[in-house]
Amino acid sequence: MASVLARGLPGLPEVSAGDDLAALIVGALGGAELSGGHLVAIAHKVVSKAEDAVVQLATVTPSRRACELAAENGKDPRVVQVVLDQSQQLLRAERGVLICRTLHGFVCANAGVDASNAPSPDTLVLLPADPDASARRIRARLRELTGQAPAVLISDSFGRAWRQGQLDVAIGLAGMQPLDDWRGRADAAGLELRATWLAAADAAAASAELARAKDSREPVVLIDGLQRYLTAADGPGAAALLRAPDEDLFL
Amino acid sequence: MASVLARGLPGLPEVSAGDDLAALIVGALGGAELSGGHLVAIAHKVVSKAEDAVVQLATVTPSRRACELAAENGKDPRVVQVVLDQSQQLLRAERGVLICRTLHGFVCANAGVDASNAPSPDTLVLLPADPDASARRIRARLRELTGQAPAVLISDSFGRAWRQGQLDVAIGLAGMQPLDDWRGRADAAGLELRATWLAAADAAAASAELARAKDSREPVVLIDGLQRYLTAADGPGAAALLRAPDEDLFL
Fold this sequence. Notes:
The structure is a homodimer of 251-residue chains.
Chain A: E1 3-8, H1 21-28, E2 38-43, H2 44-50, E3 54-56, H3 64-73, H4 77-85, E4 87-94, E5 97-102, E6 107-109, E7 123-125, H5 131-146, E8 151-159, E9 166-174, E10 180-181, E11 197-198, H6 200-210, E12 220-224
Parallel strand pairs in A: 2-8
Antiparallel strand pairs in A: 1-12, 2-12, 3-7, 4-5, 5-6, 8-9, 10-11
Helix pairs in contact in A: 1-5, 3-4
């Protein structure tokens, strides 16, 4: 019987700029085993804070466009400026919602810029500049500290088109196959499974979210049972989950 | 420590029209306990088969529109006709992909009509006509058979805008809160969590998918650890996960 177990990791301290996140995770584990068969799923906020991917609102001078968008959407012009700075494309600006394609290529509200769980009320937390590189770095450091190289996934909560609510998705990944391609493989009856191409890393991010409560200070979740998706190499990362703009029907 | 465990249920026999799916699940459990704290996640195909939500291609006469769309997209006109019959709106028809809003309101490829895992090569499997009602019915029958009323979730694999790969989402639900609304609640630092509204049922569907292999004949997955989302009442179902068309920025 296949089984997957996701466990929130308690005891991680508040994370600040410059912190060694991998060391904090190992510390929070106490003596508990970390194995190469684990996936370590990390909510991106603590990665962003450790990397100092934050902006002080007081340092931001909004452009005319940011002021206009802010007025139309009931937002702080400085926040809008930071969102625009983090975007390569603004897809929608309606009803107070800015849907952006980020510098990395992710499509999400406010380019992932967030005031909740920020170090202070005048601070915005950005997405990590290169979340796949962050995942590889944390994985390498975990290997250094423990001798084990679990997969590392960095997630954020994104809204979706057509469906209510948010779902955690993978924005950074190392040591896990992001997609499990069943296209062209036969199903149990020998028929071709034409459209089956599982976003395994996004499913893992969603699983992790269920094992943490938003107010629990448990940004790290350990998942066991995903060995069939794990790889010794860091692999293509979460960037492989981005559909190319010219292949997307909703850009 | 919060933890969530998803286990594929082996031993479910091939499901046919008229089968009592709840009884088959109880049978596959053997003596194993089913509790009111479980979520029973079921891939919709076995629900559709039990409900005979299938179409024989030989019985379909394609309309002129179906023939035109089929020619433009390299598809069988009879399959396109069935897809149109299951749709209230065709959002995109490009590069062989038909993105539809189904009669239920779900936005997905081919209106959820699928030839893989069908009873025979000339048969298409549809989504259940009313997946929330199916979930409620299966839950009631499980309660009848075991005295326990676990939550029941029915899932399908949907593609997403902007991201590669598919993810299982909830299309039917009973006994679980589909959304966990944190909007306006405070985060751990006392700041407002403005945009946090977790699609808990979709996260559970994605978790279940990781505990099954597509070719494993394990359409049923038991999830433990979601008690905080489970409810005695059947609740609003997966219909609550649909964003109203006039509130959607991508319809």
